[in-house]
């Protein structure tokens, strides 16, 4: 078995640490680019959402490099995500690609026994001891948590840094460094060193930058290519940003779901605006807007793939949040045809409006 994962932000680092620890052959996908998306679009149904096309493009590239099994996550409620594993398998078969899939889903959806069976389908390929396998998993989770924490810290530091671009530069160097390492312990050590460097970045606490909460569909949140690198664009403009959805958050949510202890703060925050489940992460989008307002953020940018049903519902609910909580919202729908210039113009106009509002100290 040669395993791979679709490109999915920092989750790829966690997967690499896990596969290295298990000593199983793997292919880690390259960063997404227009060619990957084009390849995915060519084989996917036209009406399916962008994350599926990106995933297909990424899988096809990895299969060309020898991968024969894909590790992916399963459904997140009543939206098209539930079709991804079956549809991709069907398409791969029609393309005569001999690629299998291991679909990791919530125990509440497939049962704890089935989940364990699927995990064993992966770990069973490793000749390492039980202890080494547990260690590989622990290292992978630790690396994920550190990588997410460093990225979150850098995005806040970008608003206060004295040397413009220092936080972004550190983040890039850190990414380059950790992806070339092949031992979990070395990756963790490198990430801790990056965290120390991040803390050492000189900042000016008297600055009052615009603070943006990023919310939206999970793939658009986690995979930078799918949001046209919005976090880097905000860092370049000296804006602080924060997002709720990270791979680490998703894993924690998945683990706590069977106990009903997941996302308690989120359920409370969005209860008034969106009490029912509509699929995807619409509730998280709404809740993040409400919570961020209370935390002093100046506005929300919602990002989602064009045609994403849960986020279209969230968008209409966000109008009420804007009205009642006084939280300005910019909604951006993205597909493979989205032009970067128009996208940046809309972001800049929104930031200008928030900046002016901050100066006036006025309500929305
Ligand atoms: S959440 Fe939206 S983009 Fe993601 S699979 Fe569902 S409909 Fe598609």
What brief labels describe this structure?
364 residues, alpha/beta, Rossmann fold, 3 domains, 4-stranded parallel sheet, 16 helices, globular, binds iron/sulfur cluster
End-to-end C-alpha gap: 56 Å
- What proportion strand? 5-15%
The run of helices and strands is EHEHHEHEHHHHHEHHEHHHEHEH
Output the structural class: alpha/beta
Ligand types: iron/sulfur cluster
Q: Radius of gyration over alpha carbons?
A: 20 Å
Provide a short characterization of the protein structure.
The chain is an alpha/beta fold.
Characterise the protein shown here.
The chain is α/β, with parallel strands linked by helices and 364 residues long. The protein folds into 3 domains: 3-126, Rossmann fold (3-Layer(aba) Sandwich), CATH 3.40.50; 128-157 and 160-206; 209-364, Rossmann fold (3-Layer(aba) Sandwich), CATH 3.40.50. 55% of the residues lie in helices and 10% in strands. The protein contains 16 helices and 8 strands. The protein has helices spanning 11-22, 34-43, 50-64, 84-94, 107-110, 112-123, 130-157, 166-179, 184-199, 218-222, 230-236, 247-256, 264-270, 282-294, 309-325, 340-360; strands at 3-4, 26-27, 69-73, 100-104, 211-216, 240-243, 299-305, 329-334. The strands form 2 sheets. The protein has a 4-stranded parallel beta sheet with strand order 2-1-3-4, with helices on both faces. A 4-stranded parallel beta sheet has the order 6-5-7-8, sandwiched between helices. Helix 1 (11-22) links the parallel strand 1 (3-4) and strand 2 (26-27). The protein is globular and about 65 Å long. The model has no long low-confidence stretch (mean pLDDT 93).
